[in-house]
Amino acid sequence: MHLYCGKRMELEQMKIQSDFLVIGSGVAGLFFALKVADRGTVSLITKRNIMDTNTSQAQGGIASVFDALDSFDLHIQDTLDAGDGLCNVEVVEKVVKNGPDRIRELIDMGVSFNLKTGNPAEKGEKGLHLTREGGHSHNRIVHAQDMTGMELQKVMTRHVLDHPNITVYEDHLAIDLITVSTRMKRGLITTTHEDFCIGAYVLDRRSNIVLTFESKITLLSTGGCGKVYLYTSNPDIATGDGIAMGYRAGATIANMEFVQFHPTCLYHPNAKNFLLSEALRGEGAVLLDKSGHAFMQKYDPRKDLACRDVVARAIDAEMKKSGDDHVYLDISDKNADFIRTRFPNLYEKCLSFGYDMTREPIPVVPAAHYMCGGVVTDMNGRTDIARLYAVGETACTGLHGANRLASNSLIEALVYADSAARQACRELEERDFQIPQAPPWDDVGTSPADELIMVSQNWDEIRRFMWNYVGIVRSDKRLSRAWHRIQMIQNEIREFYWDFKVSADLIELRNIAVVAELIIRCAMHRKESRGLHYNIEYPEKDDLRWKKDTIIRRQFVG
Fold first, then answer.
1. 259-369 — its CATH code?
2. Can you tell me whether residue 96 is helix, strand or coil?
3. pTM greater than 0.70 (yes/no)
4. What DSSP line would sit under 289-316, residue for residue?
5. Of the residues 140, 281, 308, 485, which is catalytic?
6. Active site residue 474
7. How far apart are CA 394 and CA 261, in angstroms?
8. By three-state DSSP, how is residue 1 classified?
9. Residue closest to 405 by CA, chosen among 222, 69, 138
10. CATH-assigned architecture of domain 3-258+372-430
11. Could you read off the pLDDT of 203-220 as tens digits, one per residue?
């Protein structure tokens, strides 16, 4: 059996060794694990159930060129346009040109994508049904109904659980990376953050025991950080764990100010995190104000198919102008059977909240959706800490720049997981890695937490001021207020963390506080408006001074 059940261990300090440690069970982590598993043993840890990921929530699809009228050059240009001057052209070319091969691999694995209607004889890539989303000049979104991520998650999970070299540890939450150095300083071996990663300390949530996972190669693939904001399309697991751990270990972080807000989440008090896919607008849905008037033509010639940053700001402006707390998304002029067939999950979900999208507009509001920044990697997913890789939303590869083009995230995760796996396997072949002895987890002097109200209070406060002060539209005054508040909260969290035994809630609070601070720092630094970052005091883009990444590294003392 290769699914660890979390039984209580007799030893308080248990060490688990493997060639590869994968932290996170979304598409990036699963694909990497499958690629390296024939070369060594893999420990894959996931903070909850293996299916509980951002990937499984992805609706729209995967952007890739398959239509004869489309081209790599057009997909590249659309990506560069969306990225607003900050994309790495070499990275964009790599992802776009390698995309179709990764889609073919998924088909070979058993992923069932939608085929062209009326053409059941065509199979594989020739018969793929392609749709369009905002910012794309052609139909190039490969999809599985309106639940593409869930289809990928199910197929990959099945393969992972069947592989003899992969052991999955559910309900295991990584606390921090273990990094060491073997430099000589005045005749002594010293330990710093700088040299290489040998694994992670991990909390077994079921037993409350901290385990030491030691590995030759470690991959951060923990997804995004939407829970930093009060309103988000992300599931509860999206607390920025990988970015926070990477930063604390000394990895370079970039472009955290570029938080993508999805324009259309269902507005309903009980509709937690429910996103209405951009594919709706790709199929003709129109945004309306409370009077039923379309408004996107006032903001962009592409109207409802403008890029997400433009649409989100347009909705925000309309809401502020009218005083309303939502706008509407209307696809009811389309054939009802088409809507129910093309969007079965969205139709049923909306119906459960009392809205029939075949007959009426649906209330929507923007919500935090995707982090374009993250842990900086090279072309093969390597961070600047040796033996530590990052892939997926945790990473900042240079693909997205200042704004992610719709449905480019899954293809980036697949392409970079493949490249990272190839590079990691080469590393193991070229070097005889020995796993050094990891220092034991030390919680001597700590006691069980007795003031859990502090955790919930700080969690709520961070999410609320991030939404109000560091949201879709920002100002220097708002950012300054957010900065002062996060500093106070960080001091409280540090004191609490070192005085009490760790818990899952405390670990996640610590991580969202770090990510919030990184977002605020980057937003304060960038004195212009570009892509997803809009500051009312610097409303114009300034290529001369700010056409560059925002880089942050942790300053170590001692």
1. 3.90.700.10
2. helix
3. yes
4. -TTS-B-GGGT-TTGGGS-HHHHHHHHH
5. 308
6. no
7. 17
8. coil
9. 138
10. 3-Layer(bba) Sandwich (3.50)
11. 999 999 999 999 999 999
